[in-house]
């Protein structure tokens, strides 16, 4: 193992060296991954099939679920496989891909959450201009920009991190190729490249955060002026889930990446990494479904026996053709 990690790959030190705990970790991650997979696929399915949900808000929610699906798939399956095989080795190529897709998905998630907050701002604060501003072409362009921004961020981080020479044992005290942990293995730093990338990502994330905060300041000031309690409740039912997701994801990720890395990794480091890599993609479908009456109605319709029978007959008719 030492020879392998010293030549071409890395050794991921996960949650425990105890075999029973490794199996338990694999099972817990597997259950969590299946829940995230099921929940996000359901969101994607019902926002695609139900014509009542063909609006910008649910269009962005569908892409958030797609991002969550990709985001959790970058790290969790590899960690499950490593635990089951009792082998933390990950090749250099796998690590490069993991860093790229992890940064790309995380950056895209921040961007799509910002777009969703702007969508809620326009819908609540400028309702008469909503259809003009958030027309289908503008929504598609926003989603394309989200994916491109994430891809560029992933490319920049990957290029810089893997251009730095590494010294000593290539042991990463994390269950995936975590950038802060990998930087501790560096012999020296290319400061100009590091500063440029750090400045770009930090300024972009800060701009997204400011945009989200300003959007919700305007939203809440508008909502509080609504005379009807029922109207306020309806608005809050679409805004509070998004606000909770934004707060949880950005606070957990910000705490992990902005705090100085410790020389002695602890269980707390692993727990905080779970808070922004595993929990948000799993909870997001639940949060949006529980607080949104339209989502619950669409979900009930998709899962109903009548709807299932109709789709079954439709598929049979297609295959007969």
From TrEMBL:
The gene is OR14J1. Keywords: Cell membrane, G-protein coupled receptor, Membrane, Olfaction, Receptor, Sensory transduction, Transducer, Transmembrane, Transmembrane helix. Belongs to the G-protein coupled receptor 1 family. The chain crosses the membrane at residues 26-46, 58-76, 96-118, 138-156, 195-219, 240-258, 270-290. GO terms for molecular function: G protein-coupled receptor activity; olfactory receptor activity. GO terms for cellular component: plasma membrane. Odorant receptor. Pfam families: 7tm_4 (PF13853). Gene3D superfamilies: Rhodopsin 7-helix transmembrane proteins. It is found in: Cell membrane. Coiled coil: none annotated. Residues 39-288 form the G-protein coupled receptors family 1 profile domain. The lineage of its organism: Eukaryota, Metazoa, Chordata, Craniata, Vertebrata. It comes from the Eukaryota. This is Olfactory receptor. The keyword Transmembrane applies. Its main location: membrane. Signal peptide: none annotated. It is a multi-pass membrane protein.
């Amino acid at each position: 193992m030492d020879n392998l990690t010293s030549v071409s790959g890395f050794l991921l030190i996960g949650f425990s060296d105890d075999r029973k705990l490794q199996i338990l970790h694999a099972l817990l991650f597997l259950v969590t991954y299946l829940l995230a997979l099921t929940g996000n696929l359901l969101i994607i399915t019902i926002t695609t099939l139900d014509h009542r949900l063909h609006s910008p808000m649910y269009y962005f929610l569908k892409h958030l679920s797609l991002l969550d699906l990709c985001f959790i798939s970058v790290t969790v399956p590899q960690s499950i496989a490593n635990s089951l095989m009792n082998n933390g080795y990950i090749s250099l190529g796998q690590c490069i891909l993991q860093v790229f897709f992890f940064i790309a998905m995380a950056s895209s998630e921040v961007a799509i959450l910002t777009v969703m907050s702007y969508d809620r701002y326009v819908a609540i604060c400028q309702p008469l201009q909503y259809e003009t501003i958030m027309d289908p072409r503008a929504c598609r362009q926003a989603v394309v920009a989200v994916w491109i921004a994430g891809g560029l961020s992933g490319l920049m981080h990957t290029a810089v991190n893997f251009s730095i020479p590494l010294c000593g044992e290539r042991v990463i005290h994390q269950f995936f190729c975590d950038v802060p942990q990998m930087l501790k293995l560096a012999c020296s730093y290319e400061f100009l490249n590091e500063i440029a990338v750090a400045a770009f990502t930090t300024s972009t994330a800060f701009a997204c955060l400011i945009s989200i905060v300003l959007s919700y300041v305007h939203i809440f000031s508008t909502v509080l002026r609504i005379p009807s309690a029922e109207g306020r409740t309806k608005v809050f039912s679409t805004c509070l889930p998004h606000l909770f997701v934004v707060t949880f994801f950005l606070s957990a990720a910000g705490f992990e990446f902005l705090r100085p890395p410790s020389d002695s990794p602890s269980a707390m480091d692993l727990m905080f990494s779970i808070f922004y890599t595993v929990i948000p993609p799993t909870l997001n479908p639940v949060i949006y479904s529980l607080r949104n009456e339209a989502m619950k109605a669409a979900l009930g319709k998709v899962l109903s026996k009548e709807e299932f029978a109709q789709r079954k007959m439709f598929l049979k008719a297609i295959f007969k053709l």
